[in-house]
Batch of 3 targets.
Target 1
Amino acid sequence: MNKTLVCLLLFAGIFFSSCVPTRNLTYLQDKSNNSQPQPVSAVAMKPYRLQTNDIISITIRAIDMKLVEIFSATSGSGSNVSDEQLYYNGYTVDDHGNVRIPVLGEVNVLGLTMEEARQKVEKQLLDEYFTKEAAIFVSVKLAGFRYTINGEVASPGSQVLMQEKVNIMEAIANAGDITVIGDRRSVSVIRQFPHGTEIHNIDLTDVNAMQSPYYHLQPNDYIYVKPLPQKAWGTGTTGLQSFTTIVSVLTLVTTTFLLLTR
C-alpha cells in the first residue's frame, strides 16, 4: 500500500513539474499587483548613435534637383527600395566612422544621432557649395533596423524592419513569437558598444521589463531565447503530452520487469 502511494506521489510530481505553467507563457504581467500605469524609463528612449558598419540612407533635395544630383549615390534613394539596394547604394560607416559622399568626400558620423548627422551634412553643403536660397533639404535615416534573433523562436535568423525604433516585443513578434518551450523569463540581449560587448537578460513575463534600457533595441542587437528545462527532459509541455510520455515510460518499465521476473 505504501509503495503504491509513493508511486502515485512520484507520478504526480513528475507530471506537474514537466508542464509549462501559464505564468511562464504570459508577457508583461503585473507581478506587484499594481494597477497604476507603468512609466517608460527615459534612459530606454535615448536616440541611437551611429556605429561602425551601420548603413545609412542620405537623401539630398533642393528646388532645382539638377544642382544636387552630383551629391547623390546611384539609384536607391527612393522610398520603395529593397534591402539589397540599400546594402549596395546606402552609405556604410567605415572603421574610422566615416561615410563617403559623392563630391563631399568623407564625413565623420561616428557617435552622432540621425539628426546630428543630418545637420552636419547640411551644414557642409551650405558652407562649401550652396546658399540658403537653394533650399537644401537633407534626410538621414538608418537603412533598415537590423537585428538577429536565435534560440526558441518560430523563425530564427537575421531580420530587417523598415522603421527607426523597435522594441524587443516587436522583434520577437516579427520572428513568429517565442515557442512554448522558450524561456520568456530570461531573454538575452547581446549589444555591441565601442568598449566591447554587453549581455543583459530581460524577464518578459514581468511588466517592469519595459523599464529596462534593453527593452528598446538598437541596430545590430543579438537576441537569444533559451529553452526551458522541459525541452531537455523531453516530457512534454502540456499536461496531455506529459501524461502520454510518463505512461509510456511506466509501461516500458513494467513490461521489462515482468519479462525479467518470469
Note: The radius of gyration is 27 Å.
Target 2
Amino acid sequence: MKILVTGAAGFIGSQLALRLLARGDEVVGLDNMNDYYDVSLKQARLDRLLPQAGFRFVRADIADRPAMADLFAREKFDKVVNLAAQAGVRYSLQNPHAYVDSNIVGFVNLLEGCRHHGVQHFVYASSSSVYGANENLPFSVHDNVDHPLSLYAASKKANELMAHTYSHLYALPTTGLRFFTVYGPWGRPDMALFLFTKAILAGEPIDVFNHGRHRRDFTYIDDIVEGVLRVLDHVAVANPAWSGAHPDPATSRAPWRVYNIGHHQPVELMHYIHLIEQAVGRPASLRLLPLQPGDVPDTHADVQALMDDVGYAPATPVEEGVQRFVDWYRAYYGV
C-alpha cells in the first residue's frame, strides 16, 4: 500500500515508517522540520529513512492548505497516519497559536484530503492528555473527556470530534490513538527521559515536578509502533449497537474509533529516575518543584479495547526500555 506518514522526522513517525518499509509498503513521509526541538536530531532520524527503497520525503506543513490539496491529488494514498502535531503540554501555555495552526488547521486539511481522494483509513495521534480532570483510574476510552487542562489536550480532543464528523458525514474510517508517555531511543529532547539523562550525565540538577509524586504509564516505542501498525490494518467500522440514548464515547454509528495505547503499568516518577540513575551509573541531583499548570498527577491506560480488537500486548519492561534509551543516548552523543 501507499501510506502517508506525517511527522516522519519525528520520534514515532520515523520508527513507524521504518516498520512499514520493512514489510513492503510504500511510504511518503511528510514533515515541516520545525525548530520546536533540535532539528539535527530530526534530520538524523530522516537520514535513516532516505536510503530505504520505497521511501520518499516531502518537506511541507500540514497547515499549508494548497500544499496538502496538491499532495493528496498527486499521490492517491491508500491510508494516512497523522503523527504531525505541535506537541507539549507546557509549551501550549506559551505559544497557543502554534497548536491551532498545526493541530486544528492542519488536521482539517488532512481530513479534507482523505475525504476527496478515497483514503481507506485515517489513523491519527490523540493523547492521554485528553483525560484532563478525569480522576477515574485506569483511564478508559469509555470515560467522559470533556474537561481538558491545557490547550494541547483540547486540540487533541478536537481532533477526535473533527474525525467523528468526517466519519459520520463521508463514511471515512478514522481511528484515534491516545498515546501514553512514549519513550525510547531516538526520543524527543523535551521529554523527561531525555532531559533527565542529559542532566545527570552533565552533573546538573533535574527539575522534578509535583515533588516526584507523578505516576506515568511509560510506553516503549516498539510497543507503540506495533500497536499503530495493527490499528492501521484494522479499518474502523461502525458499532451497530451504539445508542444515542446511552452513547459510548469510544465508538459510534459511524466508522470511528478511539483507543488508549499504553503499557497499562504506571510507574512512579521517582522509581523512573532511579532506573535512569542505574543505567547512567551516576546519582541525580533533584530540584523538587510543584505541579505545573496543565499537568495531571497520574496517567494509567486501560488498553483492553485495543487488546480485544487488534491483539495489542505491550511487551517491553520499563527497566529494559530505559537502559536501551541510555545506551542509545551515549552512543549518539558520544558521552
Note: The mean pLDDT is 94.
Target 3
Amino acid sequence: MEQLRDSGLNDVVIRYAASGKPLLGICLGMQLLFASSEEHGDHEGLALLPGSVVRFRGDYKVPHMGWNRLSYKKSESPIFQGIEEGHVYFVHSYHVKPERESDLLAVADYYQPVTAIVGKDNVYGMQFHPEKSGDIGVQLLNNFLKMCK
C-alpha cells in the first residue's frame, strides 16, 4: 500500500473501481481491496470492501501452500459460470476476514474456513493463484474476462 500511495496508483485503482468496470485482485491484490491489514504492522488498504487481513494463527504450517478445494457460497455469481467446485493453488500467510457475508463468494478449508473468492458489484478478488490452478483457474479468469467485454 505504501508503494501504491507513493506512486498515486491507489487513487487510480479507486477511481477505476468507481467507474463500474470489472476489477480483479489476485493474492496480495485481493488483500489490498480490503480496509485494513496487520501484515508488517497495522495498515489501511484500498477499502473497496470492508474487512481485514489477518495472519494465520494456530499450530499448523504457515505459509499455507498447496491445493485446496473451493466451496462456493454464491454459485450464481457469473465468476462461476460453467465451473464445478474443485481444487486451486494457494500460497499465503495472511487471509481476509470480510465484514459482510454477502461479499464472500467461495471459501477453502485450511484448519478453518479461508476466504478464497470475494465479490461485490464489479470488484472481485481471488486469494489463490488462478494462473497456477489448472483448468479451474483458467475458467475463472475466462469468466472474469467475459465480464470485461
Note: The radius of gyration is 15 Å.
